[in-house]
Structure formats: structure tokens, C-alpha cells
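Form 7-S
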Amino acid sequence: MRLPQQKASLGILLDLAWFAICAVEADPDVAGLQGDLAATRLSLRTQRDARNNAVDDVVKARALRAIALLGIWKWLRQLNLDTVAAFGGKKKSLDYLRIFPMPPSQMMKQSAHDRVLSAQAVLKALAHPATPKALAPAIKPGEAALKLLQTREAGVTAAQAVAKDRVDDIHVLRAAWFTRYKSLESALALKFPDDAERVNAYFDEPPKPKAETPPPVAGQG
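Output:
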């Protein structure tokens, strides 16, 4: 029996285990020895599906966040236009700079944490007595857009945490797979100590590792 590489894909591990399980189960002389490997394979397949679902959830959470970011961007961009108009184009006035100390595009390029802080600062500035009353209608839409963004950011963080846990679960089960796979081989070898060919017949050959292609040498090719 040749073991697969430690970093073999889950698909390879599942297929190799399934071959051995079916082979042992089909032979009345050894049927029943496949139980532990079968249980481990089922757990690995279940956790693989859970990991894939968790990764899908991360992608979905990021997509929802992208739309929330679009909402904040549209609000900031329109508010900036309205603010410039309200201050007569005087972008260097202290009251204008209190609302927009940096352009909306620069705010959007900040980290998730700083982006939220900037939006909160804009909302606080809109409530200042020196802010033109014409800008007051922008407060509620801004609050709603910011609340949605914070919810979506939290969703991404939570989804990423779940995905990490699922990956960790798979690492544990991968180790268990190798243990069960080798244990089955040992049990068969113990039952047929003088028949290595028979023992090997219960196991499929894992794919051979692909040879790595060396990087091209500069000046050649």
C-alpha cells in the first residue's frame, strides 16, 4: 500500500478510503474491518461540505458588504456635492472641513474600522449648529447607510470565523484519516501476514505527485 501525500486533496483521500471500504466490505473474509475508516470518511466528507458552505457564506457576506459600501459611497458623494453648494464652493472653510476633512473617495479607501469612524464623524458634523439646515435631510439616510454597513462588516467577520473553524476541523480529521487508513492496512496485514499482494489488493494506488516545473532561466527560452 502506498500512502498519499500528506497534502493530498480531500477528494483523493475520500476516493482512496471509499475504494478500501468497498473492497473490504465485499470480501466475506474481512468484512467488518472497514468500520472505523468508514466512520472517519463520513466525518471528513461532512466537514468538507460544511467548510464549502462556510466559504460560500464568506463570499455572500462580502457581497452584501459591497452593496452596503456602495450605499455609503453614494451617500457621501451626494452629501459632498450638497455641502459644496451649501458653502458656496468654499472648500477651505472650517465649517466645510469639519464635515469633510478628506474627500469621500479617500474615506472609502480607509480600513473598515477607520471608514466607519469617518462616517460617524460626518454625521456628528452634520448635527453641528453651524451646519446649514439644507443638509439636515441627509442625516437619516446616512445613519441608515452606516448602520447597514456596520451590520455587513460584522457579518463578514462572523462568516470568516466560522470558515476558519471549519478548516481547523478538517485538519484534525485529515490526521484521523491517515491513522484509520494505516490501521486498516495493519489489521489486514495481521490477518494475512504472508500475503502482501492480497493486502495491497484492498487499496487503490494514490495519484503520483506531479513533478514541479523548474522556473525558466533568465536569458533562455
